[in-house]
Design goal:
Length: about 260
């Protein structure tokens, strides 16, 4: 009887504390270019609230396809509006939670040892700059950074110089790594990515009107636990949440 009472007591205690033990962490699927800033923000979020959020990083296109396939994410942060629109049309986003959080710039980078300042316009000879090597970009068919790059090069009349000289990468950080390792002569990435890689330097900034605005929309996904996930979205809008992105060079578009 004593053993039965002890077992019952232990079961009761386990059930009483189960919500705390089994509390669901918030899972964020975020564009690869956000990794440094978002990792810092999530640490600050846990310190301030005691709540844990984890992030998975990849190209926005890859993440959107994983979400379509049923991946258990709560929040999606895309590097362009198009992939967020794609999920909205698929009925996978809580549309009223969506907001445009950040902006960025598109830049040309080279290994730091070879870098020199350039003006990016229709007169730039990228083929000569590459000197027989390749141009690292995100996959121009799907990865936002790659699509921005193709749009900018096309607008400036430079696409024909490099269309057969691309080193396509699965995401923008992978493109950055190709340049840093000397496996590509130059690369087109976001300004914020260039800041976190000491082996590369920005040699030029693409004109803002050469491509669509680089914007990062954020939203809760259908099936997300709103009570657990909404506080993280609210935190990102605070001064403390915004600070980590500003420090990495993002433009914060949401007050």
């Amino acid at each position: 009887m004593a053993r039965f009472r002890l077992s019952s007591l232990l079961l009761a205690l386990s059930l009483a504390f189960a919500p705390a033990v089994w509390a669901k962490d918030t899972t964020v699927y975020a564009a690869a270019s956000l990794k440094t800033a978002l990792d810092e923000a999530l640490v600050a979020y846990k310190a301030q609230t005691g709540s844990t959020a984890t992030a998975a990083y990849a190209a926005s296109s890859a993440l959107a396809k994983q979400i379509e396939a049923g991946a258990p994410a709560d929040i999606f942060i895309s590097a362009d509006q198009e992939w967020m629109d794609h999920l909205v049309k698929a009925g996978l986003v809580q549309a009223d939670s969506r907001f445009t959080f950040l902006g960025n710039q598109l830049v040309l980078v080279m290994e730091r040892s070879q870098a020199r300042r350039l003006t990016i316009d229709g007169n730039l000879d990228i083929a000569a700059l590459l000197n027989g090597r390749r141009l690292a970009v995100g996959d121009v068919k799907a990865v936002p950074a790659g699509r921005y790059a193709k749009a900018a090069l096309t607008k400036l009349g430079l696409w024909s110089q490099v269309s057969d000289k691309l080193a396509p990468a699965e995401n923008v950080r992978a493109a950055l790594a190709l340049v840093a390792r000397g496996e590509a002569g130059a690369g087109i990435v976001y300004a914020t990515d260039a800041r976190v890689e000491p082996g590369v330097a920005i040699v030029g900034v693409f004109p803002a009107d050469s491509h669509a605005p680089i914007e990062y929309p954020v939203a809760l996904l259908k099936g997300a636990d709103q009570a657990a996930s909404q506080p993280l979205l609210d935190f990102l809008k605070t001064d403390e949440g915004r600070r980590h992105f500003i420090n990495q060079g993002f433009t914060v578009l949401t007050k």
